[in-house]
Design brief:
Oligomer: single chain
Number of strands: 27
Helix content: 25-40%
Distance between the termini: 44 Å
Shape: globular
Largest sheet: 7 strands, mixed
CATH superfamily of the largest domain: FAD/NAD(P)-binding domain
Length: 561
Protein backbone atom coordinates (compact mmCIF):
# COMPACT_ATOMS: atom_id res chain seq x y z
CA UNK A 1 0.00 0.00 0.00
CA UNK A 2 1.03 3.63 -0.33
CA UNK A 3 2.51 5.24 2.80
CA UNK A 4 -0.03 6.88 5.11
CA UNK A 5 1.07 10.26 6.43
CA UNK A 6 0.95 10.77 10.20
CA UNK A 7 2.89 14.04 10.03
CA UNK A 8 4.86 15.97 7.44
CA UNK A 9 7.95 14.10 8.66
CA UNK A 10 6.59 10.56 9.04
CA UNK A 11 4.49 8.09 7.07
CA UNK A 12 3.72 4.44 7.86
CA UNK A 13 2.81 1.43 5.76
CA UNK A 14 2.85 -2.37 5.54
CA UNK A 15 5.84 -4.49 4.53
CA UNK A 16 8.24 -2.73 2.19
CA UNK A 17 9.96 -4.90 -0.39
CA UNK A 18 13.46 -4.11 -1.72
CA UNK A 19 12.20 -3.42 -5.24
CA UNK A 20 9.84 -0.71 -3.86
CA UNK A 21 12.54 1.41 -2.26
CA UNK A 22 13.52 3.30 -5.40
CA UNK A 23 9.88 4.45 -5.70
CA UNK A 24 9.93 5.59 -2.07
CA UNK A 25 13.05 7.62 -2.82
CA UNK A 26 11.31 9.12 -5.85
CA UNK A 27 8.35 10.02 -3.62
CA UNK A 28 10.72 12.08 -1.46
CA UNK A 29 11.44 9.78 1.49
CA UNK A 30 15.00 9.96 2.83
CA UNK A 31 14.93 7.30 5.56
CA UNK A 32 13.27 3.98 6.41
CA UNK A 33 12.58 2.56 9.88
CA UNK A 34 12.03 -1.20 9.93
CA UNK A 35 9.87 -2.24 12.89
CA UNK A 36 9.26 -5.82 11.77
CA UNK A 37 11.67 -8.44 13.19
CA UNK A 38 13.44 -10.67 10.71
CA UNK A 39 11.83 -14.07 10.29
CA UNK A 40 8.35 -13.05 11.32
CA UNK A 41 6.89 -14.16 7.96
CA UNK A 42 7.97 -16.86 5.53
CA UNK A 43 8.15 -14.56 2.50
CA UNK A 44 9.51 -11.56 4.38
CA UNK A 45 12.75 -9.92 3.15
CA UNK A 46 15.45 -9.54 5.79
CA UNK A 47 16.65 -6.20 7.11
CA UNK A 48 19.97 -6.81 5.32
CA UNK A 49 18.12 -6.96 2.00
CA UNK A 50 16.17 -3.79 2.83
CA UNK A 51 19.33 -1.99 3.95
CA UNK A 52 21.20 -2.98 0.80
CA UNK A 53 18.40 -1.70 -1.47
CA UNK A 54 18.14 1.48 0.59
CA UNK A 55 21.87 2.11 0.31
CA UNK A 56 21.69 1.67 -3.46
CA UNK A 57 18.83 4.19 -3.60
CA UNK A 58 20.58 6.69 -1.33
CA UNK A 59 18.22 6.19 1.60
CA UNK A 60 19.23 5.58 5.21
CA UNK A 61 17.70 2.52 6.92
CA UNK A 62 17.32 1.88 10.68
CA UNK A 63 16.38 -1.49 12.30
CA UNK A 64 14.09 -1.17 15.35
CA UNK A 65 12.36 -4.56 15.56
CA UNK A 66 9.28 -4.93 17.79
CA UNK A 67 7.22 -8.07 18.33
CA UNK A 68 3.48 -7.87 17.73
CA UNK A 69 1.68 -6.76 20.89
CA UNK A 70 4.91 -6.10 22.77
CA UNK A 71 5.69 -2.43 22.19
CA UNK A 72 7.62 -1.40 25.31
CA UNK A 73 8.29 2.05 26.72
CA UNK A 74 11.95 1.59 25.71
CA UNK A 75 10.88 0.79 22.13
CA UNK A 76 8.91 4.04 21.94
CA UNK A 77 11.92 5.97 23.27
CA UNK A 78 14.18 4.39 20.63
CA UNK A 79 11.67 5.30 17.92
CA UNK A 80 11.63 8.92 19.12
CA UNK A 81 15.43 9.00 19.08
CA UNK A 82 15.52 7.59 15.55
CA UNK A 83 13.08 10.23 14.37
CA UNK A 84 15.36 12.90 15.82
CA UNK A 85 18.46 11.50 14.12
CA UNK A 86 17.31 10.32 10.69
CA UNK A 87 16.97 12.49 7.57
CA UNK A 88 13.33 13.34 6.92
CA UNK A 89 10.76 12.57 5.78
CA UNK A 90 10.78 9.01 7.12
CA UNK A 91 8.68 5.98 6.21
CA UNK A 92 8.28 3.35 8.96
CA UNK A 93 6.84 -0.09 8.39
CA UNK A 94 5.93 -3.40 9.99
CA UNK A 95 3.58 -6.15 8.78
CA UNK A 96 0.53 -3.84 8.63
CA UNK A 97 1.79 -0.47 9.88
CA UNK A 98 0.11 -0.82 13.28
CA UNK A 99 3.29 -1.29 15.33
CA UNK A 100 4.95 1.63 13.60
CA UNK A 101 1.91 3.81 14.29
CA UNK A 102 1.86 2.65 17.92
CA UNK A 103 5.51 3.55 18.37
CA UNK A 104 4.88 6.99 16.90
CA UNK A 105 1.77 7.54 19.05
CA UNK A 106 3.61 6.67 22.27
CA UNK A 107 6.60 8.79 21.27
CA UNK A 108 4.33 11.80 20.79
CA UNK A 109 2.73 11.58 24.25
CA UNK A 110 3.16 14.87 26.05
CA UNK A 111 4.14 16.63 22.81
CA UNK A 112 0.77 16.51 21.06
CA UNK A 113 -2.73 16.46 22.59
CA UNK A 114 -4.02 12.92 22.91
CA UNK A 115 -7.04 13.57 20.64
CA UNK A 116 -4.69 14.86 17.93
CA UNK A 117 -2.59 11.70 18.14
CA UNK A 118 -5.68 9.49 17.95
CA UNK A 119 -7.14 11.54 15.10
CA UNK A 120 -3.97 11.37 12.98
CA UNK A 121 -3.72 7.61 13.51
CA UNK A 122 -7.41 7.15 12.71
CA UNK A 123 -7.11 9.20 9.52
CA UNK A 124 -4.29 6.88 8.42
CA UNK A 125 -6.47 3.84 9.14
CA UNK A 126 -5.07 2.79 12.53
CA UNK A 127 -7.01 2.44 15.80
CA UNK A 128 -4.90 3.44 18.81
CA UNK A 129 -7.63 2.98 21.43
CA UNK A 130 -5.68 0.05 22.89
CA UNK A 131 -2.84 2.34 24.00
CA UNK A 132 -4.96 5.35 25.02
CA UNK A 133 -4.05 5.03 28.68
CA UNK A 134 -0.36 4.79 27.88
CA UNK A 135 -0.50 7.91 25.71
CA UNK A 136 -2.37 9.73 28.47
CA UNK A 137 0.34 8.56 30.88
CA UNK A 138 3.11 10.27 28.92
CA UNK A 139 3.71 7.28 26.66
CA UNK A 140 4.50 4.91 29.53
CA UNK A 141 2.67 1.86 30.85
CA UNK A 142 0.61 3.09 33.86
CA UNK A 143 1.93 1.73 37.16
CA UNK A 144 -0.85 3.09 39.41
CA UNK A 145 -3.93 0.86 39.05
CA UNK A 146 -6.08 3.10 41.28
CA UNK A 147 -9.44 4.06 39.81
CA UNK A 148 -12.25 6.37 40.85
CA UNK A 149 -15.70 4.83 40.56
CA UNK A 150 -19.18 6.38 40.55
CA UNK A 151 -22.59 5.03 39.63
CA UNK A 152 -23.32 7.90 37.25
CA UNK A 153 -20.58 9.97 35.61
CA UNK A 154 -21.42 13.14 33.68
CA UNK A 155 -18.86 14.64 31.30
CA UNK A 156 -19.40 18.40 31.05
CA UNK A 157 -20.75 20.94 33.54
CA UNK A 158 -22.43 23.18 31.01
CA UNK A 159 -26.15 23.62 30.59
CA UNK A 160 -26.81 20.00 29.68
CA UNK A 161 -24.54 18.36 32.24
CA UNK A 162 -25.69 20.31 35.28
CA UNK A 163 -29.34 20.12 34.20
CA UNK A 164 -29.05 16.34 33.85
CA UNK A 165 -27.51 16.01 37.33
CA UNK A 166 -30.21 18.22 38.83
CA UNK A 167 -32.97 16.30 37.04
CA UNK A 168 -31.57 13.00 38.32
CA UNK A 169 -31.47 14.24 41.91
CA UNK A 170 -34.97 15.73 41.65
CA UNK A 171 -36.25 12.21 40.93
CA UNK A 172 -34.00 10.18 43.24
CA UNK A 173 -31.96 11.89 45.94
CA UNK A 174 -29.71 9.03 46.97
CA UNK A 175 -27.47 8.86 43.90
CA UNK A 176 -23.72 8.57 43.48
CA UNK A 177 -23.00 11.16 40.75
CA UNK A 178 -19.78 12.77 39.56
CA UNK A 179 -19.42 15.62 37.07
CA UNK A 180 -16.14 15.99 35.18
CA UNK A 181 -15.24 19.51 34.01
CA UNK A 182 -12.08 21.60 34.40
CA UNK A 183 -13.79 25.02 34.03
CA UNK A 184 -14.10 27.42 36.96
CA UNK A 185 -16.79 29.57 35.33
CA UNK A 186 -20.20 28.65 33.91
CA UNK A 187 -21.72 30.91 31.25
CA UNK A 188 -25.29 31.64 30.21
CA UNK A 189 -24.38 31.73 26.55
CA UNK A 190 -27.82 32.75 25.19
CA UNK A 191 -27.23 36.08 26.94
CA UNK A 192 -24.22 36.97 24.80
CA UNK A 193 -26.51 38.08 21.95
CA UNK A 194 -27.92 40.72 24.28
CA UNK A 195 -24.44 41.69 25.48
CA UNK A 196 -23.51 42.33 21.84
CA UNK A 197 -26.71 44.35 21.49
CA UNK A 198 -26.02 46.58 24.49
CA UNK A 199 -28.82 45.11 26.62
CA UNK A 200 -26.97 42.88 29.12
CA UNK A 201 -23.70 43.49 30.92
CA UNK A 202 -21.26 40.59 30.36
CA UNK A 203 -21.02 39.75 34.06
CA UNK A 204 -24.74 39.00 34.13
CA UNK A 205 -24.04 35.91 32.01
CA UNK A 206 -21.54 34.17 34.29
CA UNK A 207 -21.47 32.35 37.63
CA UNK A 208 -18.77 30.53 39.56
CA UNK A 209 -19.01 26.86 38.67
CA UNK A 210 -18.78 25.80 42.33
CA UNK A 211 -22.04 27.60 43.08
CA UNK A 212 -23.91 25.56 40.45
CA UNK A 213 -22.73 21.99 41.02
CA UNK A 214 -25.73 20.33 42.72
CA UNK A 215 -25.33 19.46 46.37
CA UNK A 216 -24.09 15.92 46.84
CA UNK A 217 -22.52 15.69 43.38
CA UNK A 218 -18.77 15.07 43.23
CA UNK A 219 -17.02 17.62 41.01
CA UNK A 220 -13.89 16.23 39.32
CA UNK A 221 -12.02 19.28 38.08
CA UNK A 222 -10.13 17.69 35.22
CA UNK A 223 -10.14 17.43 31.45
CA UNK A 224 -11.26 14.26 29.69
CA UNK A 225 -8.66 12.68 27.41
CA UNK A 226 -10.54 9.66 26.05
CA UNK A 227 -13.35 7.14 26.51
CA UNK A 228 -13.12 3.38 26.93
CA UNK A 229 -16.80 2.39 26.74
CA UNK A 230 -16.11 -1.37 26.67
CA UNK A 231 -14.35 -0.96 30.03
CA UNK A 232 -16.95 1.53 31.36
CA UNK A 233 -14.12 4.00 31.83
CA UNK A 234 -13.35 7.67 31.21
CA UNK A 235 -9.66 8.51 30.92
CA UNK A 236 -8.63 11.90 32.28
CA UNK A 237 -5.57 13.86 31.27
CA UNK A 238 -2.70 12.51 33.33
CA UNK A 239 -4.15 8.99 32.96
CA UNK A 240 -6.51 8.99 35.92
CA UNK A 241 -9.36 6.57 35.29
CA UNK A 242 -12.99 7.13 36.28
CA UNK A 243 -15.26 4.08 36.10
CA UNK A 244 -19.04 4.25 35.80
CA UNK A 245 -22.23 2.24 35.63
CA UNK A 246 -23.90 4.90 33.50
CA UNK A 247 -22.20 7.66 31.54
CA UNK A 248 -23.82 10.93 30.39
CA UNK A 249 -21.81 12.83 27.78
CA UNK A 250 -22.57 16.57 27.63
CA UNK A 251 -19.37 18.56 26.97
CA UNK A 252 -20.90 20.93 24.41
CA UNK A 253 -19.10 21.59 21.15
CA UNK A 254 -15.82 23.09 19.97
CA UNK A 255 -15.64 26.52 18.37
CA UNK A 256 -12.98 26.01 15.75
CA UNK A 257 -11.45 29.50 15.53
CA UNK A 258 -8.46 27.91 13.73
CA UNK A 259 -10.86 26.91 10.96
CA UNK A 260 -10.67 30.39 9.43
CA UNK A 261 -7.17 31.41 8.37
CA UNK A 262 -5.99 34.56 10.16
CA UNK A 263 -9.03 34.82 12.42
CA UNK A 264 -7.43 34.23 15.80
CA UNK A 265 -4.77 36.85 15.15
CA UNK A 266 -7.33 39.61 14.63
CA UNK A 267 -10.25 38.77 16.93
CA UNK A 268 -11.18 41.64 19.20
CA UNK A 269 -9.54 44.31 17.05
CA UNK A 270 -9.54 45.69 13.51
CA UNK A 271 -13.34 45.59 13.52
CA UNK A 272 -13.44 41.79 13.86
CA UNK A 273 -15.78 40.46 16.55
CA UNK A 274 -18.04 37.58 17.57
CA UNK A 275 -20.87 37.13 20.06
CA UNK A 276 -19.81 33.50 20.35
CA UNK A 277 -17.18 34.43 22.95
CA UNK A 278 -17.77 36.03 26.34
CA UNK A 279 -14.85 38.44 26.03
CA UNK A 280 -15.75 39.53 22.49
CA UNK A 281 -19.48 40.22 22.80
CA UNK A 282 -18.83 43.64 24.45
CA UNK A 283 -16.58 44.52 21.50
CA UNK A 284 -19.51 43.86 19.17
CA UNK A 285 -21.47 46.58 20.96
CA UNK A 286 -18.48 48.95 20.86
CA UNK A 287 -18.24 48.49 17.10
CA UNK A 288 -21.97 48.98 16.60
CA UNK A 289 -21.91 52.22 18.59
CA UNK A 290 -18.86 53.57 16.79
CA UNK A 291 -19.83 52.66 13.21
CA UNK A 292 -21.45 55.59 11.43
CA UNK A 293 -21.34 54.10 7.94
CA UNK A 294 -19.38 51.76 5.73
CA UNK A 295 -19.67 48.00 5.30
CA UNK A 296 -20.76 45.54 7.99
CA UNK A 297 -20.52 41.82 7.29
CA UNK A 298 -22.17 39.05 9.28
CA UNK A 299 -21.15 35.43 8.64
CA UNK A 300 -22.61 31.98 9.27
CA UNK A 301 -20.58 28.77 8.78
CA UNK A 302 -21.84 25.38 7.58
CA UNK A 303 -24.27 23.59 9.86
CA UNK A 304 -24.47 22.24 12.48
CA UNK A 305 -23.68 25.14 14.78
CA UNK A 306 -24.68 26.29 18.23
CA UNK A 307 -27.90 28.34 18.02
CA UNK A 308 -28.31 28.69 14.28
CA UNK A 309 -30.27 31.92 14.70
CA UNK A 310 -27.52 33.72 16.63
CA UNK A 311 -25.56 34.94 13.58
CA UNK A 312 -28.55 36.88 12.29
CA UNK A 313 -29.70 37.98 15.76
CA UNK A 314 -26.44 39.96 16.01
CA UNK A 315 -27.16 41.48 12.61
CA UNK A 316 -30.74 42.54 13.35
CA UNK A 317 -29.85 44.16 16.69
CA UNK A 318 -26.96 46.03 15.05
CA UNK A 319 -29.18 47.24 12.21
CA UNK A 320 -31.83 48.40 14.64
CA UNK A 321 -29.30 50.53 16.49
CA UNK A 322 -27.99 52.03 13.25
CA UNK A 323 -31.57 52.67 12.15
CA UNK A 324 -32.33 54.35 15.48
CA UNK A 325 -29.30 56.62 15.14
CA UNK A 326 -30.00 57.39 11.49
CA UNK A 327 -26.77 55.83 10.16
CA UNK A 328 -28.23 52.68 8.59
CA UNK A 329 -28.71 54.49 5.28
CA UNK A 330 -24.92 55.00 5.18
CA UNK A 331 -24.18 51.34 5.96
CA UNK A 332 -24.01 48.39 3.59
CA UNK A 333 -25.01 45.27 5.54
CA UNK A 334 -24.43 41.81 4.11
CA UNK A 335 -25.30 38.40 5.58
CA UNK A 336 -22.91 35.79 4.18
CA UNK A 337 -24.33 32.35 4.95
CA UNK A 338 -22.58 29.11 4.01
CA UNK A 339 -26.00 27.45 3.84
CA UNK A 340 -28.80 27.89 1.35
CA UNK A 341 -31.62 29.30 3.48
CA UNK A 342 -32.11 32.17 5.90
CA UNK A 343 -33.57 29.91 8.64
CA UNK A 344 -34.04 26.16 8.73
CA UNK A 345 -37.73 26.22 9.69
CA UNK A 346 -39.44 27.75 6.68
CA UNK A 347 -42.55 28.96 8.55
CA UNK A 348 -40.46 31.65 10.26
CA UNK A 349 -38.71 32.93 7.14
CA UNK A 350 -41.43 35.43 6.04
CA UNK A 351 -41.23 37.37 9.31
CA UNK A 352 -37.43 37.46 9.07
CA UNK A 353 -37.51 38.56 5.43
CA UNK A 354 -39.62 41.56 6.46
CA UNK A 355 -36.68 42.71 8.58
CA UNK A 356 -34.13 41.86 5.91
CA UNK A 357 -36.02 44.22 3.59
CA UNK A 358 -36.59 46.85 6.27
CA UNK A 359 -32.88 47.05 7.09
CA UNK A 360 -31.75 46.74 3.46
CA UNK A 361 -29.65 43.64 4.12
CA UNK A 362 -27.98 41.86 1.18
CA UNK A 363 -28.30 38.07 1.51
CA UNK A 364 -25.47 35.94 0.09
CA UNK A 365 -25.98 32.19 0.39
CA UNK A 366 -23.34 29.55 -0.30
CA UNK A 367 -20.60 31.82 1.12
CA UNK A 368 -18.24 30.11 3.60
CA UNK A 369 -15.61 32.29 5.32
CA UNK A 370 -12.14 30.83 4.77
CA UNK A 371 -9.64 33.62 5.47
CA UNK A 372 -9.54 37.06 7.05
CA UNK A 373 -6.96 39.84 7.23
CA UNK A 374 -8.09 42.25 9.92
CA UNK A 375 -5.47 44.92 9.30
CA UNK A 376 -6.39 44.98 5.59
CA UNK A 377 -10.13 44.86 6.46
CA UNK A 378 -10.59 42.05 3.94
CA UNK A 379 -12.29 38.65 4.13
CA UNK A 380 -12.32 35.80 1.63
CA UNK A 381 -15.24 33.41 1.15
CA UNK A 382 -15.53 30.14 -0.74
CA UNK A 383 -18.70 30.20 -2.81
CA UNK A 384 -20.56 27.21 -4.19
CA UNK A 385 -23.09 27.48 -6.99
CA UNK A 386 -26.01 25.17 -7.77
CA UNK A 387 -23.75 22.89 -9.83
CA UNK A 388 -21.22 22.58 -7.00
CA UNK A 389 -18.59 24.79 -8.62
CA UNK A 390 -16.40 26.64 -6.13
CA UNK A 391 -14.50 29.91 -6.24
CA UNK A 392 -13.00 32.37 -3.78
CA UNK A 393 -14.55 35.85 -3.54
CA UNK A 394 -13.24 38.86 -1.64
CA UNK A 395 -15.16 41.24 0.59
CA UNK A 396 -13.96 44.46 2.21
CA UNK A 397 -15.39 45.47 5.59
CA UNK A 398 -15.38 48.10 8.29
CA UNK A 399 -16.91 45.67 10.78
CA UNK A 400 -17.35 41.91 10.58
CA UNK A 401 -19.20 39.63 13.00
CA UNK A 402 -17.73 36.14 12.58
CA UNK A 403 -19.24 32.82 13.59
CA UNK A 404 -16.54 30.13 13.53
CA UNK A 405 -17.00 26.61 12.16
CA UNK A 406 -17.96 24.15 14.88
CA UNK A 407 -17.25 20.51 15.65
CA UNK A 408 -17.62 18.04 18.48
CA UNK A 409 -14.84 18.32 21.09
CA UNK A 410 -11.71 16.51 19.94
CA UNK A 411 -11.87 13.83 22.66
CA UNK A 412 -15.39 12.93 21.49
CA UNK A 413 -14.70 13.26 17.77
CA UNK A 414 -11.93 10.62 17.79
CA UNK A 415 -13.56 8.30 20.32
CA UNK A 416 -15.48 5.02 19.92
CA UNK A 417 -18.62 6.98 20.85
CA UNK A 418 -18.60 9.18 17.74
CA UNK A 419 -20.53 8.76 14.51
CA UNK A 420 -18.88 9.24 11.11
CA UNK A 421 -19.25 13.02 11.39
CA UNK A 422 -17.61 13.05 14.83
CA UNK A 423 -20.73 13.77 16.92
CA UNK A 424 -21.95 11.59 19.79
CA UNK A 425 -23.98 8.79 18.21
CA UNK A 426 -27.28 8.61 20.11
CA UNK A 427 -30.79 7.46 19.33
CA UNK A 428 -32.61 10.72 18.60
CA UNK A 429 -35.66 9.75 20.67
CA UNK A 430 -34.22 8.17 23.85
CA UNK A 431 -30.79 9.90 23.70
CA UNK A 432 -29.12 6.58 24.51
CA UNK A 433 -25.99 5.67 22.58
CA UNK A 434 -26.84 3.38 19.68
CA UNK A 435 -23.97 0.95 20.35
CA UNK A 436 -23.00 1.43 24.00
CA UNK A 437 -26.24 1.20 25.94
CA UNK A 438 -24.83 2.43 29.26
CA UNK A 439 -23.99 5.76 27.64
CA UNK A 440 -26.36 8.70 27.12
CA UNK A 441 -25.82 12.15 25.67
CA UNK A 442 -27.44 15.54 25.50
CA UNK A 443 -26.73 19.10 24.51
CA UNK A 444 -24.67 20.39 21.63
CA UNK A 445 -22.45 17.29 21.34
CA UNK A 446 -25.12 14.85 20.16
CA UNK A 447 -25.53 13.86 16.54
CA UNK A 448 -29.33 14.04 16.54
CA UNK A 449 -31.05 16.25 13.91
CA UNK A 450 -32.21 18.88 16.38
CA UNK A 451 -31.19 22.50 16.93
CA UNK A 452 -28.23 22.98 19.26
CA UNK A 453 -29.80 25.39 21.76
CA UNK A 454 -30.10 25.73 25.53
CA UNK A 455 -33.84 25.19 25.12
CA UNK A 456 -33.11 21.80 23.56
CA UNK A 457 -30.89 20.82 26.51
CA UNK A 458 -33.65 21.92 28.92
CA UNK A 459 -36.00 19.39 27.31
CA UNK A 460 -33.35 16.69 26.94
CA UNK A 461 -32.15 16.65 30.57
CA UNK A 462 -35.36 15.15 32.04
CA UNK A 463 -35.46 12.55 29.25
CA UNK A 464 -31.91 11.43 29.99
CA UNK A 465 -32.55 11.47 33.75
CA UNK A 466 -35.64 9.26 33.52
CA UNK A 467 -34.05 6.82 31.09
CA UNK A 468 -30.90 6.44 33.18
CA UNK A 469 -32.91 5.82 36.35
CA UNK A 470 -35.15 3.41 34.45
CA UNK A 471 -32.07 1.48 33.26
CA UNK A 472 -30.80 1.33 36.86
CA UNK A 473 -34.15 0.00 38.08
CA UNK A 474 -34.69 2.99 40.34
CA UNK A 475 -38.00 4.12 38.85
CA UNK A 476 -40.92 1.97 37.78
CA UNK A 477 -41.70 3.08 34.23
CA UNK A 478 -42.26 0.47 31.49
CA UNK A 479 -41.70 2.90 28.60
CA UNK A 480 -38.65 5.05 27.88
CA UNK A 481 -38.88 8.82 28.04
CA UNK A 482 -38.90 10.39 24.59
CA UNK A 483 -37.33 13.60 23.27
CA UNK A 484 -39.27 15.02 20.32
CA UNK A 485 -36.48 17.22 18.99
CA UNK A 486 -37.74 20.40 20.64
CA UNK A 487 -35.66 23.51 20.16
CA UNK A 488 -36.32 27.19 20.56
CA UNK A 489 -34.70 30.24 19.02
CA UNK A 490 -35.88 33.67 20.22
CA UNK A 491 -34.93 35.68 17.14
CA UNK A 492 -34.20 39.24 18.28
CA UNK A 493 -35.27 41.14 15.17
CA UNK A 494 -35.14 44.54 16.90
CA UNK A 495 -34.57 45.84 20.40
CA UNK A 496 -37.90 45.16 22.06
CA UNK A 497 -39.26 42.54 19.63
CA UNK A 498 -38.61 38.83 19.15
CA UNK A 499 -39.87 36.19 16.75
CA UNK A 500 -40.16 33.20 19.11
CA UNK A 501 -39.36 30.23 16.91
CA UNK A 502 -40.17 26.86 18.53
CA UNK A 503 -39.89 23.64 16.58
CA UNK A 504 -39.34 19.88 16.81
CA UNK A 505 -37.91 17.19 14.55
CA UNK A 506 -38.72 17.70 10.91
CA UNK A 507 -39.12 21.48 11.29
CA UNK A 508 -42.55 21.04 12.88
CA UNK A 509 -43.73 24.17 14.73
CA UNK A 510 -44.53 23.49 18.38
CA UNK A 511 -45.48 26.86 19.96
CA UNK A 512 -45.68 26.75 23.76
CA UNK A 513 -48.08 29.65 24.14
CA UNK A 514 -51.55 30.45 22.79
CA UNK A 515 -51.58 32.74 19.77
CA UNK A 516 -53.34 35.53 21.68
CA UNK A 517 -50.40 35.66 24.11
CA UNK A 518 -47.46 35.12 21.72
CA UNK A 519 -47.99 34.66 18.00
CA UNK A 520 -44.84 32.77 17.10
CA UNK A 521 -45.04 33.82 13.45
CA UNK A 522 -44.85 37.53 14.24
CA UNK A 523 -42.41 39.78 16.09
CA UNK A 524 -43.66 40.24 19.65
CA UNK A 525 -42.89 42.50 22.59
CA UNK A 526 -44.08 39.76 24.94
CA UNK A 527 -41.54 37.38 23.43
CA UNK A 528 -38.83 40.02 23.99
CA UNK A 529 -39.77 40.21 27.66
CA UNK A 530 -39.55 36.43 27.79
CA UNK A 531 -36.04 36.55 26.26
CA UNK A 532 -34.79 39.44 28.41
CA UNK A 533 -36.55 38.98 31.75
CA UNK A 534 -37.92 35.44 32.08
CA UNK A 535 -35.54 33.01 30.40
CA UNK A 536 -32.38 33.95 32.37
CA UNK A 537 -33.95 33.18 35.78
CA UNK A 538 -35.58 30.06 34.30
CA UNK A 539 -32.09 28.96 33.30
CA UNK A 540 -30.36 29.71 36.61
CA UNK A 541 -33.16 28.89 39.05
CA UNK A 542 -35.15 26.17 37.28
CA UNK A 543 -33.19 24.32 34.59
CA UNK A 544 -29.96 24.08 36.64
CA UNK A 545 -31.90 23.25 39.83
CA UNK A 546 -33.92 20.32 38.55
CA UNK A 547 -37.15 22.26 38.27
CA UNK A 548 -38.85 21.46 34.99
CA UNK A 549 -41.70 23.85 34.10
CA UNK A 550 -42.94 22.97 30.60
CA UNK A 551 -40.19 20.36 30.30
CA UNK A 552 -41.71 17.15 31.67
CA UNK A 553 -40.83 14.27 29.34
CA UNK A 554 -43.38 12.27 27.39
CA UNK A 555 -43.47 8.47 27.56
CA UNK A 556 -44.60 7.47 24.11
CA UNK A 557 -43.49 4.75 21.79
CA UNK A 558 -40.92 6.37 19.55
CA UNK A 559 -41.38 6.27 15.78
CA UNK A 560 -38.23 4.17 15.65
CA UNK A 561 -39.55 1.58 18.10
Amino acid sequence: MDPKRLTDQLAVRDQVRPEEIAALKAAGFRSIIVNRPDGEGADQPTFAEIERAARDAGIEARYLPVETGKVSDADAAKFAAAMEELPKPVVAFCRSGTRSTTLWALSQAGQRPLPDILARAKAAGYDMSGVTRRIANGGNVPTDPAEISHDIVIVGAGAGGIAAAASLLARYRNLDIAIIDPADIHYYQPGWTLVGGGVFRPQETRRDMASLIPEGVKWIRAAVAAFEPDAHAVILEGCRVVKYKKLIVAPGLKLNWHGVEGLEQTLGRNGVTSNYRYDLAPYTWELVKSLSGGTALFTQPPMPIKCAGAPQKAMYLSCFEWERRGTLKNTKVEFLNAGGVLFGVKDYVPALMDYVKRYGIDLSFGHDLKKIDGSAKTAWFETTDAEGNKEIVERRFDMIHVVPPQTAPDFVRVSPLANEAGWLEVDQWTLRHVRHHDVYGLGDVIGAPNAKTAAAARKQAPVVAENVLRDLGLIDEPRPAIYDGYGSCPLTVERGKVVLAEFAYGGRRVPSFPKWFIDDLKPSRTAWLLKEKILPPVYWQAMLKGREPMAKPEHETSPAA
